[in-house]
Amino acid sequence: MVYEPSHSERIRYKRLQDAAYQAGLDAVTSLEAALALAGLVLPSLTNDGPVGSRGFVRLGGCSVSVANQLAEVIAAGAHVLHEQRT
Question: Which of 40, 51, 58, 64 is most buried, with most CB under 10 Å away?
Fold first, then answer.
């Protein structure tokens, strides 16, 4: 016998999926803004929709130059955070 979700279960699932999709959009927007502050762009950055009721952001590919710049920015930010904690 196949399980058929109830109407309320389907509604709850849809709301979870919608919230996960929105979380992905918000994360993409936030990451794009942070990258722009560093003068960087990830051209393939996109919201890839919910996966298992969780947002999923696909970072995509970039040039070696952008990857190196991104690593430099992340390292600098991590260093600042480390200094603030100590």
Answer: 40
